[in-house]
Structure formats: C-alpha cells, structure tokens
Amino acid sequence: MISLSHLNKLKEITIFFTIIISNFAFAADPVDIWKKKENQNEQSNQISNEKKITIKSPILSDDVNKITIKIDEQKINNFEQPVIGIFDPEDNNFSLNMWSESDGEDIKNILKRIDKLKLTKLSEDLLFQVLFTNAHPPKTNLTSGEFLKIKIDWLIKNQRFQDLETLLKNNPTVGRETK
Predict the structure, then answer these.
(1) CB neighbours (10 Å) of residue 58?
(2) What's the rounded Cα separation, in Å, for the pair 17 and 158?
(3) Hey, what's the torsion of the CAs at 27, 30, 31, 32, to 10 degrees?
(4) Distance from C-alpha of 79 to C-alpha of 23, rounded to nearest angstrom
(5) Is residue 146 within 8 Å of 108, Cβ to Cβ?
(6) Closest listed residue to residue 160, CA positions, set 111, 117, 125, 120
(7) What letter would DSSP give residue 145?
(8) Beta pairing partners, 87
(9) Alpha-carbon distance 30 to 46, whole Å?
(10) What is the DSSP letter of 29?
(11) Cα–Cα–Cα angle for 26, 30, 36, rounded to 5 degrees
C-alpha cells in the first residue's frame, strides 16, 4: 500500500516534469528580434521625416529689438551676504551655508565652553578649519560683524597672527577697525 507521503512526492514529481516539458515546448519557437527592430527604426525614420521643425525666436526673426533685459541693482545688493574665511569649503567637505541656519547665541555659548577647555593640537586645528572656512554668517542672534569679531578674537587669543594676516589679505573688506 502506498502511503500519503509517497503519493505527495509522486504528485510533486509529476507536476515538476509537466512544467519542464511545457517550458521546452514554448521555448522551441524561434523569434526574430532583429527584423522587429529594423521595422521600428524604419517607422521612426518615416515619422521624423514627416515632422517639420519650426523655431519661433526673436533672435532668428526680424523682431530683434523686442528683446530687453532688465537688471535691478538694488535686488542684487540685497542678496549679497558676506563670506569671510580663509579656506575653500569644498577642500574640507563643508558647505557655504554651514553656519547660516545656526543660532548665534548657541555658537557664542559653545565657543565659550570650548575656550575653557585645553584642546589638543588636532582639536584646535579642526576648530580652526571649521571657523575659518568661507561660509555665510548665522542669520539669527548674530550679525556678520559680531561673527567676524568672534573669529578675529579667537585668532588673537590663540596667537595665530600669521593666520590673521592671511584672513585680512584674502578678505580686503574685513578689518577696517583696528584692534
């Protein structure tokens, strides 16, 4: 007598072979894919030949005097934000806007806490790169002048006078006030 497990195995084997045989039967039909592509290319060439391209541009027509460009100098000056620093942001994988969304009070408090610490040379160099990478100043609670003052005070406190000279050379509009 055949047990149920043997019947299930026999049933599974039968289904398996049926699927394999039917796949071979369907796979036996050859398909010519190259002719279809050639037909499609010929149709697309015919369609593109039938289309006429017309360009309507005042530059190509006689109405050249209709082109006017207006530049409002006040709008340009309003968007001008000072970017003060020594390093290019791309050199250190930073962004020009790395400070712009920060709160100025938070920056002041964090720098006060850092001033109380004895930094290693690596930490001090990292802070120097972050502070003196060209970037826009914070938009809230800190003006660009105050942000610049923080940077200059940090250079003087850490006796980095050569870096201060570099900052002033790279940013000629900076440092009009003497310290």
Answers:
(1) 11
(2) 83
(3) 160
(4) 68
(5) no
(6) 125
(7) H
(8) 133
(9) 29
(10) S
(11) 120
C-alpha to C-alpha distance for 175 and 179, rounded to whole angstroms? 9
Q: Coil, strand or helix: which one is 133?
A: strand
What tokens were used for 96? 């020009």
CA gap 45, 50 in Å, rounded = 9
Whether the Cβ atoms of residue 140 and residue 103 lie closer than 8 Å to each other: yes
d(CA 63, CA 79): 34
Give the tens place of pLDDT for each residue, 122-153.
999 999 999 989 888 888 888 888 888 888 89
Predicted confidence band of residue 22 (pLDDT cuts 50, 70, 90) = confident
Residues in the chain: 179
Three-state secondary-structure class, residue 103: strand
Task: Tell me the two tokens of residue 127.
Answer: 């802070």
